[in-house]
Known about the structure:
Elements lengths: L5 E6 L17 E2 L2 E2 H12 L3 E6 L4 H7 L3 E4 L6 H6 L11 E6 L7 H11 L7 E6 L9 E4 L5 E5 L6 H4 L4 E9 H9 L15 H7 L4 E5 L12 H21 L3 E2 L12 E2 L4 E2 L4 E2 L4 E2 L4 E2 L4 E2 L3 E2 L4 E2 L4 E2 L4 E2 L4 E4 L2 E7 L4 E4 L2 E7 L4 E2 L4 E3 L9 E3 L4 E2 L4 E3 L2 E3 L4 E2 L4 E2 L8 E2 L11 H24 L1
Amino acid sequence: MTKSNIAAVVLAAGLGTRMKSSLPKVLHSVAGQPMIGHLLDRLAGFGADRTVVVTSPGMSAVADFVAPAETTIQDPPLGTGHAVLAARDALADFDGDVLVLFGDTPLLTEGTMQAMVDVRRGKNNPAVVVLGFSPDDPGEYGRLVTGANGGLEKIVEYRDASEEEREIGLCNAGIMAIDGARLFDLLDDVGNDNAKGEYYLTDIVEVARSKGWGCVTVETEDPDEVMGVNSRTGLAEAEAAFQYRLRLQAMEDGATLQDPDTVWFSYDTTLGTDVRIGPNVVFGPGVSIGDNVEIRAFCHIEGAEVDNNAIIGPFARLRPGADIGPGVHIGNFVEVKEARLDEGAKANHLSYIGDSWVGAGANIGAGTITCNYDGFFKSRTEIGAGAFIGSNTALVAPVKVGAGAVTGAGSVIAKDVEGDALAITRAPQEELTGWALKYRLRKQTEKDKAEESAEKKAG
Length: 459
């Protein structure tokens, strides 16, 4: 058996009724990705040869998301042991090691999976390896009862545990590594003589021991790693734990987070070296940040690429398709979508740049917008290198402003502008000498008369 001879059975049949949602529980997101997606990513990195996801009837959305992983349906739902049995046909020709995992544990790591498999293949060839954890408050978790030789004797649920067993700090995470050659022999001997009439996966420990097969435990050092999500509160707790992990990794990799607890990453955010991130910055999915980039406070970035030495924010928004070149400045209350800004371009204040290309060194004045949508179609705006777009310019796409051209402040540019030209559409300025003084005097006289009239009526 080679080291890569590993399969995973992911239990994802739970309806998640406590989530109070029409969305299957495992498709609720943590750090911008459905929970089960995190687990599948870990399995891919770990090198699992096959993955079987067990769902309930009507969960086509889960099957679509996990593809090309194979799915099988547990119907009716008769417990966790019964759920693993639903994967029998998919694993009929498999004799490697089988990891039994849960789709609502997004923080499980490759390292822990590897440790479980290593122990399963190690000394004394145990049939079952059970993952344990030692929380600060064991509460009502099931306990792992071990013998004098360190072997796992049984898993006991809290409600069935003696006072002595309840004092045990090692709790059951539910995750197992099982010898595939013995897996279904074990499950076939699990009964359902219990209050719910269900087949519990935990019972395979006693079944294995009755056959003379060893069972052992592996303990994770991080209880958050095995956190299962069953409610919206649990989802928030998992998000917080995942964000802590991402923030710590970002800082260990060389990023400066001015106020780490207020920075929110996505699962796939990538940061270059010497990135500086201010408070209250949110990264959505699909963001790549280059080296020596400064992201100032209160920015929201999603689906965007930012090249080296750029400055973003404060209060900037980069939407999907934003491609920010090296040394570009994006300032406060500037929004960029589906637009490329070449090296050294600047948009420092109050602007919207969408479906556009902005050439190197161009300057976008405050209040500039690209009018890229006519109610039916999106059109592009092109601004040449070194162009200067005056404040409060509306660029009505499709339109091109040539390299080095200037648009006058307050202009509506609906026709192409040649390079190095000035385009201006403002009406000529008129000045009426003394008009403002006459206006104020007239209005003050009207006001005085109105007040005098009101006093007479009141008297």
